[in-house]
Amino acid sequence: MTATIKTVGIIGAGQMGNGIAHVCALAGFDVKLNDISPDRIKAGMATINGNMARQVSKKTISEDERKAALARIGPAEKIEDLGACDLVIESAVEKEEAKRKIFADLCPVLKPEAIVASNTSSISITRLASSTDRPERFIGIHFMNPVPLMELVELIRGIATDDATFDASKVFVTKLHKTIAVSEDFPAFIVNRILLPMINEAIYTLYEGVGNVEAIDTAMRLGAHHPMGPLELADFIGLDTCLSVMQVLHEGLADSKYRPCPLLVKYVEAGWLGRKTQRGFYDYRGDKPVPTR
Ligand SMILES: CC(=O)CC(=O)SCCNC(=O)CCNC(=O)[C@H](O)C(C)(C)COP(=O)(O)OP(=O)(O)OC[C@H]1O[C@@H](n2cnc3c(N)ncnc32)[C@H](O)[C@@H]1OP(=O)(O)O
Ligand SMILES: NC(=O)C1=CN([C@@H]2O[C@H](COP(=O)(O)OP(=O)(O)OC[C@H]3O[C@@H](n4cnc5c(N)ncnc54)[C@H](OP(=O)(O)O)[C@@H]3O)[C@@H](O)[C@H]2O)C=CC1
């Protein structure tokens, strides 16, 4: 039987977590938003508020829909506050150890029938599931950034994911008005298996001096009709996330073609993680983005 999902918990109120909360609340789900600190939750809520206000001004949603959706989102300052959720989606940092620790804290407070999902960009769902008390009710639900605008969600079954969990996840994603692509559980799934090596290659192109930031992004925007240049997109995703995905591909597929570009490593080591830290391949601290190379 397919479980009915009414209340969704989200762990991590960053750019993906707040986007997931946004679309869940608009679709009528009650949402509990968790992060390491109350300030992070407040910042996530402020972003949702701003993005919904923009949707109202563009007339894609009404003021009443905005108010009703915001009223459905509540903070979960402690992990115990997620205890009544039917589904919890983990969307914290792309580090396996951090995710394992979150699941270890989360599972004991959940109802036995609750589904646990990860929004991981790359990490094995089977391996993450094995760190929980419910591998059969664990699944990958992978949203795309920016969540309110992107139409796709990847669904990834771990080796033990049961049919009821898969079916309930399909119903849930369909209610969000997103299209599903089912991926087997291999490193970085489908979108990032293809997209991140392209971004990494763009960074090599910069590293080897084939072109500067502006030339590379202009080339791919106008020459290949991509909505964003690859370096602009890397900054948008977050360079820490890009590096983590390349490391998972490199280790998981044991092929040197996935070697993360040393320049990507250097930016991450500098703490220049892209838009979220105001500096990456572009510097966002002024009126408009300025290339850093
Ligand atoms: C790493 C992973 O694990 C997986 C991933 O997600 S990989 C990343 C996948 N995402 C992409 O590849 C995104 C590529 N970029 C794009 O498709 C587009 O640039 C975009 C959709 C993000 C923005 O489109 P755009 O036309 O260039 O920008 P812009 O005109 O500023 O915005 C378009 C609309 O989006 C809205 N918008 C922009 N960012 C938004 C956000 N974060 N949240 C909500 N709305 C947003 C704007 O208000 C605007 O609304 P209107 O059209 O109603 O005016
Ligand atoms: N960025 C993208 O384009 C996409 C990312 N993803 C995936 O989504 C996940 C989140 O990425 P994204 O939103 O970009 O990252 P962000 O850095 O924007 O947000 C992550 C949030 O999680 C918080 N966090 C870290 N550890 C914990 C914890 N133990 N408990 C609760 N919250 C925690 C972080 O707090 P703090 O900053 O204080 O550490 C931060 O607020 C990652 O797994 C990523 O791979 C999936 C699709 C697209």
TrEMBL record:
All copies of domain 3-hydroxyacyl-CoA dehydrogenase NAD binding, residue ranges: 7-184
Entries under PROSITE patterns matching the protein: 3HCDH (PS00067)
Annotated positions for site Important for catalytic activity: 142
GO molecular function ontology, one term from the record: NAD+ binding
3-hydroxyacyl-CoA dehydrogenase C-terminal domain boundaries: 189-284
Keywords associated with the record: NAD, Oxidoreductase
Binding site for NAD(+): 12-17, 35, 94, 99, 121, 145, 276
EC number(s) given by UniProt: 1.1.1.157
InterPro entries per record: 3-OHacyl-CoA_DH, 3-OHacyl-CoA_DH_CS, 3-OHacyl-CoA_DH_NAD-bd, 3HC_DH_C, 6-PGluconate_DH-like_C_sf, 6PGD_dom2, NAD(P)-bd_dom_sf
Gene3D superfamilies from the UniProt entry: N-(1-d-carboxylethyl)-l-norvaline Dehydrogenase, domain 2, NAD(P)-binding Rossmann-like Domain
Any Pfam family: 3HCDH_N
GO biological process: fatty acid metabolic process
Family named by the database record: Belongs to the 3-hydroxyacyl-CoA dehydrogenase family.
Protein name stated in the entry: 3-hydroxybutyryl-CoA dehydrogenase
Protein species of origin: Undibacter mobilis
